Amino acid sequence: MSEEIRCWLVEREYDDKGLVTLTYATPDGESVYRRELAASAASGVTAAKELTPDKLEGVADEETRDRYATEADRTASNYDPDEPI
After folding, report:
1. HSE of 61 in the Cβ direction (CA atoms, 13 Å)?
2. What's the rounded Cα separation, in Å, for the pair 4 and 52?
């Protein structure tokens, strides 16, 4: 079994169809997990998720990796992993 990696919420995007896309990133910004759900279901979102490596995808763009790493650090500094955000 693969070890889980803590990923932090770095981005939340709403679309015009009532959906929200949540992006969780590893602390280094190298990998992300995206989840799309109804905006009405987004109230139980937590600051972090524990994910297995097979659920993560790489981030090719260096600027995006840096932004995600910065945002993951900010989220980790301001919230407990299970805290609603």
Report:
1. 4
2. 4
